[in-house]
Amino acid sequence: MSAQAQLQVPAATPARRRRGVNLEKWGWIFMRASGVVLVVLIFGHLFVNLMLGEGIHALDFAFVAGKFANPFWQWWDVLMLWLALIHGANGMRTVVNDYVTHPGVRKALVWALGLAAALLIVLGTLVVFTFDPCNGVLEDGSMWEACLAIGN
């Protein structure tokens, strides 16, 4: 082949880039960002619950009721719940995508993970924002006076 013919050989065409949102890239970024935020939320949660005040000896129903009466702690716990569940479900989705080879089984498992995470997020959020420590307290119960004092 002559030098002229070698110059006319077309170069390999570059791989085409898919248009649209790259969900895998955003999932990867979310895992790193949510991991950092979760470390702060979890260690803050542990510090307040275990180190401040009387420490672990103060943890009881009244302590939880007091925390859930404060909107700051409600949002702190809900953010921690949401991030932990989404972070965990995304991690499990990655494991399923890596190791499950049958497309139908993979799709079913990813859907099951998404539904389970969504259900737990909804239920957990409802518990935090609708928590009523006096719900179901009877007149002969030990919490009756406390519930009367707060007006429930």
Automatic annotation (TrEMBL):
This is Succinate dehydrogenase hydrophobic membrane anchor subunit. Its cofactor is heme. One of its GO terms (biological process) is tricarboxylic acid cycle. Keywords: Electron transport, Heme, Iron, Membrane, Metal-binding, Transmembrane, Transmembrane helix, Transport, Tricarboxylic acid cycle. The keyword Acetylation does not apply. Gene3D superfamilies: Fumarate reductase/succinate dehydrogenase, transmembrane subunit. Membrane-anchoring subunit of succinate dehydrogenase (SDH).
